[in-house]
Amino acid sequence: MVVPSAAKINIPTRKRRRKNSDILVVLIATAIAVSVAWLVASSLLSRPSAPEGTVGLRKPDTPVEPAVALDKADNKESGDKAESPHVPDGEGADGEMHLSAKNMIATERPYLIYGTAWKKDATADLVFKAIRAGFRFIDTACQPKHYDEPAVGYGLKIASDQLGLKREDLFLQTKFTSVKGQDPHNIPYMADASLENQVRQSVHASLRNLKTSYIDSLVLHSPMPKMEDTFKVWSVFESLVKEGRVRQLGISNCYEYEQFQQIYNRAMVKPKVLQNRFYEKSGFDVELRRLCKTLGVQYQSFWTLTGNRQALASREWKAKAQEKGLTPQTLMYAYMMTRGHTPLSGTKDEGHMEEDVQIMLRFQHGERVLSEEEMNQLGSLLGISGE
Questions:
Q1: Which of 15-24, 50-59, 112-121 is predicted with the least confidence, judged by mean pLDDT?
Q2: For residues 165 and 157, what is the distance between their CA atoms, to the nearest angstrom?
Q3: Which CB contacts under 8 angstroms, 24+ apart, belong to 383-386?
Q4: Number of neighbouring beta carbons within 10 Å of residue 301
Q5: How many whole angstroms separate alpha carbon 129 and alpha carbon 58?
Q6: Which pTM value belongs to this model?
Q7: Which 3 state secondary structure label does DSSP give 44?
Q8: N or C, which end of the chain has less CB nearby within 10 Å?
Q9: CB-CB contact of 313 with 271 (8 Å)
């Protein structure tokens, strides 16, 4: 049988085309593999640069299991020889100027707390930057409605690792928030559990979120509607102190003198903190602050700047700030710290973070920033009477 000439030509042509196609596939696959390898290598090589910029720092998608990530740095007395921690610029390697919450508390001098509410997706990045600037006291809450506590924990972990900080160098304060204060679609504990179990579940979540085995300060976000329920919560708080999971207790948004006094008197483990909004509507808590001083309770203020914008914008306030080499905002913090109080700063601006830390360090070094006469003048501008 004679094969047509067309068929004789087509058979080798198909083989040649198939061979060419196979070569093209191999070349494409090789190019893809090389590109992937290059991207992976570039990613690995770029990681050490994180301390410089930390732009876009975010918490990981997979939650870290609870308890010890931040605490591991405390175990350097064990058999393994650890590398010397990186000491940030301006701090001595001998530790004399090393910023540590433990050392700052020991001075019994005022300090600032960095507040993490309403930071949303920027939380981890801002917590890192605040600690890098010199903040060592961090306030948060197990309340997804206003706080991203897991992101706070991630920012703390990155800062601790990159700045060589031990767990004792940081002071972590969080809060239990009742169901009423939560987003009904995102409650961090079982809403139908007993109140006592809600508290335990919330604290367990905070320990996991913050990657620590203990909380320095646990605060009741607001008194419960019924005093009986407030003491149910407080009883669990006290048991957590006995178990070593919590170091001290506090309460927030408590503006009634008699209510706070009743809580203090009935508590077995006394509150060490009262955290309130500092503004004219509450009469600036003059009587409560006086009671706190008598009882040895730390008065923490939030909304310190926002609630007093008019005074801070006045010509007299700005003039005094300029005279002292301060901004109107840091002058306000100086006023609060001179009174012996502990303001929260929630700034998102790195420059303002550094300014806040600088005024804090002036107090930590024992400087008397404001005289009694200047304090009276500033108090008058704020509208505070009876102090």
A1: 50-59
A2: 9
A3: 383/280, 383/284, 383/311, 384/284, 384/286, 385/286, 386/286
A4: 25
A5: 12
A6: 0.79
A7: helix
A8: N
A9: no
Contact (Cβ atoms closer than 8 angstroms) between residue 219 and residue 275: yes
Element spanning 260, H or E: helix 257-266
Query: Which H or E element spans position 343?
Result: strand 342-345
> How many Å apart are CA 307 and CA 304, to the nearest integer?
6
How many CB atoms within 10 Å of residue 314?
14
- Cα dist from 248 to 28, 234, 271, whole Å: 63, 12, 7
Residue 83, pLDDT > 80, answer no
* Amino acid of residue 278: F
Question: How crowded is the C-beta side of 254, counted as CA atoms within 13 Å?
Answer: 30
Q: End-to-end CA distance of the chain, in Å? A: 119
* 115 neighbors 135 (Cβ within 8 angstroms): no
Token code pair at residue 205:
């979540």
pLDDT tens profile 269-294: 999 999 999 999 999 999 999 999 99
Joined tokens for residue 363: 């107090």
- Residue 311 parent element (H or E): helix 309-312
State the Cα–Cα distance between residues 142 and 148, nearest whole angstrom: 8
Nearest by Cα to 183 from 220, 223, 143: 143
Q: Which residues of 33-45 are buried (b: 16+ CB within 10 A; e: fewer)?
A: eeeeeeeeeeeee
Q: How far is 340 from 336, CA to CA, in rounded Å?
A: 7
Query: Residue 57's CB: how many other CB atoms inside 10 A?
Result: 20
Q: How many CA atoms lie within 13 A of 184 on its CB side?
A: 1
Write out the two tokens for 345. Answer: 């700063």
How many CB atoms within 10 Å of residue 102?
13
Please give the pLDDT value at position 310.
97
Question: Maximum CA pair distance of the chain?
Answer: 121
* CA pair distance 334, 326, nearest whole angstrom: 9
